[in-house]
Amino acid sequence: MELDLKRPLLFFDIESTGLNIPSDSIIELSFVKALPGESTPQVKTWRIKPWDYDSRSQKHISEEASKVNGITDDMLSGCPRFIEVAPEIVEWLRGSDLAGFNASKFDLPLLAEELERVRAYCNKRISAYNTPETSREKARKMLADIDIDLHEPILVDVQNIYHAMEPRNLRAAYRFYCGGKDFERAHSAEADTMATYEVLKSQLDFYKEPAPYREQVLKNDVKALSSFVGKKYVDFSGHLIYDDSGINDYAHVLINFGKHKGKYARDIYNSEPSYFAWIEQGSFALDTKAQFDRIRKETEAEKRGPASAEALRNLRDKFSGGKLF
Asked: What is the pLDDT of residues 221-230, one digit of tens each?
């Protein structure tokens, strides 16, 4: 069915250096603009060199992002920076509503962030006392060219429609895998638990052979099934995760939120111990605080080096003498 449009509807998708909107950047941007009364959309794609305006250097694409999008740093060295194509991008955006898949949570916020970075750079150039007047004029023109409010367009998020129309909850899973019927007493703990047990057994039958659209099969092995959890959380809230090394010790723990997202917790403790104090005093789960404290203690122990034989004997005597049984 063709779209019934009153205004152009601009579908867009972004590939980026990573998933942290405040610090990551766009490396590829594609627009597909559907126009009222026309069956063939307009298409435009940019490859973009991710740019750090403060250090005036190209940003690095994370290994995780490169594995997904297939783009590496060297592939972008000759591409324009976002600031150089921003006026053209905004011209495509003007007068259009927007659509994307997961666009409301990632693509649109990152696109808006890139435009704000250009505005900040231009305002900085205008206000600096030593900026040549010709550069000030260029900055003023850039601000005029990218003058757009991305909060105004209507946004259609196709992923949200998918999740609303095809809910991914236990009841829907039971209907899909277990014969198209509902189970009784849904949302009672025992019924939900029994349904989960039945769904997993049915999934093993459903995915035991590859399909044309899906080569992956489910192996009837608990460790293999656990791999679908994704990133392995260190704390139950997911504020700390292990890196991709497969080594689950404190030296391989990454912070998974906020300004230090993607950085090793041990490195942050060494460079900014007050951050750990902030965690301890903050409104975080006790388990999260305990895991940060464990990393702090492990890092301190690493600094001190291995304990002497005498110190180990003293510890043994101290704790063995106080046993209750």
From this structure: 887 887 776 6
